[in-house]
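User: I'm curious whether this sequence folds into something compact or stays loose and floppy. Could you predict its structure so I can see for myself?
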Amino acid sequence: MESLTAELISLEDAQEKMLAQLTPVTDSLSVSLAEAAGRITARAVTSPIDVPPFDNAAMDGYAIRLADAASKKPLPIAGKAFAGAPFTGEWPAGSVVRIMTGAPLPAGCEAVVMQEETEQHGNAITLTAPVTLGQNIRLLGDVIREGQTVLTAGVRLGAAELPLLASLGIAEVSVLRKLRVAIFSTGDELQPVGQALAAGQIYDTNRFTVSLMLKKLSCEVIDLGIIKDDPHALRVAFEEADRQADVVISTGGVSVGEADFTKTMLETLGVITFWKLAIKPGKPFAFGRLTSSWFCGLPGNPVSAAVTFYQLVVPLLATLTGQKKSALPPRQKVRAATPLKKSPGRLDFQRGFYRQNDQGELEVHTTGPQGSHVFSSFAQANCFIVLERERGDVEAGEWVEIEPFNVLLEG
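Assistant: Here's the prediction. I'll summarize afterward.
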C-alpha cells in the first residue's frame, strides 16, 4: 500500500503549496449594510461614536448621590428619567430620581440603586442595601471609544458583524469586490438536471453543488455548462473561463482515463502545481495557474468533488479575499460509536453524525456506505470523521477526530 500512495501529496502540503502562491484581491467598493451580508471588509472599520454615547443606567432603579445613600430617612423622588427622555428638572439634595435602563444619568448622579433594593413609601423610598460608587452605571465609551477599530480588514460580514455596524450608525461599508469564479463540468455522460437521461448518462450534480456553495460564499459564478470530452471544446472553455474569472473550477477529467483531457489541457495552457492527493475521497485533484486565473480541477465523483472543494477550494477563496479567520471549523476528539472501515495510505474524510450520548459525552456514528458516489451520506451527516493517513480500521469506543460541517454543508 505504501508503494501505491508514497507519491501522493498530503493535504497539508497541498494546502501550503497552494496558499503560498496566492495574492489577495484589492479592488473594493462601498455598499449599504443591507447589501453587505456575506461580503468581506476591504479595510478596517472604526467607530464614529462612543458606545455608550453618554453615561446611563444599567437597570431600572433610582439615581442617587453618595452623600444621600447613608440616609435612613425616606428619600423623595424628584422626577423620572427614561431612555430618550432624560430628567432635566431641579434635583434637590436629599432626594433621588426614578430612572429606567438606558436613560441618561442626571447631573451629579454617582450610583443607581436597583429597585429591588428599595422600599417605596408613597413618593419616597428607603434603601435596603449598601450603595457603592458607580454601581449599575454604564459610562460613556465603556464598550467602544470613538475611533476604535471594531472590524479589521478581511472579515466576512454576517449576523454578528452587521448589527454591530448598524448600532454605530454606519450605513455603508467598504468591501472587496466579489471573486469571479468560472465553473464547468466535463464528460459525454453528463446531462443537465431536469432533462431526461439517455442510456449511460448521469446527472451533472457536481456543477450544481459547486455553484450552490460558491453562492453561499458570495462569489460571482460564471457557469459555462457541460463541456464534452473533446480537446478543442475543452480548450475553448478554458480560454473563455480564464478571460473572465479569478478562479476556474472544473469537475471531472483529472484522473488517468483515456478520455480525461483536463489535465493534459492544463499542462498545455498553464502550469500544474500538483494533481494527486493522499486523501480519500478526492485523490485526483489538480491545482495550477492559467494565464490570468487560478485553476482547481475537482474529481468527477460527487462526494470527492464536494470534499476537495470544501478542504481545498474554500481555503483558497478565503485567502484570495484576505480573510484572517479559518474558513473551516476546528476539529475535535470524540469517541467512535460504531466501527469504521479504513485502509492505511490516505487521509480519510468519512461522513458521520456526532451527538451527545446518555452519559453527556460526544460520540460519532457513521452514516453507512462511504463510496465516493454516495452523496446521500452528506444529507445524513453533520461532520467529517477525519482518519489519519496510516490508520486502519477503527473499533467502536476508539478516539477519532471530527470536523463539524460549516454553513456550506450544514442544513
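Summary: The CA atoms of residues 51 and 141 lie 5 Å apart. The chain has nine helices and 26 strands.
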